[in-house]
Write a structure and sequence with these properties.
- The protein is mainly α.
- The chain has two domains: about 70 residues, no CATH class; about 45 residues, no CATH class.
- About 40% of the residues lie in helices and about 0% in strands.
- It has five helices and no strands.
- The radius of gyration is 17 Å and the shape is globular.
Length: about 120
């Protein structure tokens, strides 16, 4: 599972929850801040997964989503990487190494025309 993709999919669930906007531990503003910290790499690895679990638990308690919906987000938060340069964005006709970085986040190696899984940006 790609924790960044899973975290990014929680915005709507946070918005539709009955959680308060301001609370130091489970307010909507705090949970959104946690998502941004995960998305932009300030929190990584096991800590990012713990934070994702906290966010998902708060969203479920606040009625923004069910446990089953959270499971589906985790299950579907996978990035398919390709090794065939024909399918990579930015593949040039010259013998240079192909580039495929997202213009908004610099993410590597995703399928052509899928855009950035975090921001929806396009690859060069």
């Amino acid at each position: 599972m790609d924790v960044k993709i899973a975290a990014d999919q929680l915005w709507d669930s946070i918005n539709s929850s009955s959680l308060p906007y301001e609370h130091a531990e489970y307010g909507k503003d705090h949970l959104r801040w946690m998502i941004l910290e995960i998305k932009f790499g300030a929190v990584e690895g096991e800590k990012a997964h713990r934070w994702l679990g906290w966010i998902q638990g708060c969203v479920c308690v606040g009625g923004g989503a069910t446990l089953e919906e959270m499971k589906q987000i985790n299950k579907n938060s996978k990035v398919t990487r390709v090794t065939d340069p024909i399918n990579l964005v930015g593949t040039s006709t010259t013998k240079e190494k192909p580039t495929n970085e997202c213009t908004c986040c610099g993410g590597p190696g995703y399928l052509k025309d899928s855009g950035c899984p975090l921001h929806g940006g396009q690859y060069e």
